[in-house]
């Protein structure tokens, strides 16, 4: 049952792990009469999930500029701003953090709000599972290289940037 729940509202780590689990399930199923239905359903879910994640969770310099120029309160099926994100909600740090070459999957997307934070686990699992396209995989690694001081420095790769602090950390 959990296999066919929706794809909206979950953070990047959960989405990437779910994508990987679906790919593993696909590799383990036999294409016999019993497995064929599950295989078809998994293929359909993988397609929908990859489309959603690659289109709506991906952020690079071009996408950041596009979001900054979004019109708000667009509600038709042709709306560019599907989640009605207010450009003023983009945190200032994102403009300094985003290199000209590179990109990453943001933390989460929900109506009127995007979590622009960088999460290492979700982005690395997106590469490992092929949720990220080859171009996106290269862009994630380019971002890590460009922002080495912020993301790595003298320690292992930071799990979140900017760091979660105070009350946000507790919840």
From TrEMBL:
KW Ligase (keyword) present: no
Signal peptide: none
Pfam families reported for this sequence: Glyco_hydro_100 (PF12899)
GO biological process, alphabetically ordered: sucrose catabolic process
Record keyword Hydrolase present: yes
Residue ranges of coiled coil: none
Domain of life from the UniProt record: Eukaryota
Keyword line: Carbohydrate metabolism, Glycosidase, Hydrolase
Any one Gene Ontology molecular-function term assigned to this protein's record: endo-alpha-N-acetylgalactosaminidase activity
Protein name (record): Probable alkaline/neutral invertase F
Gene: LOC110747974
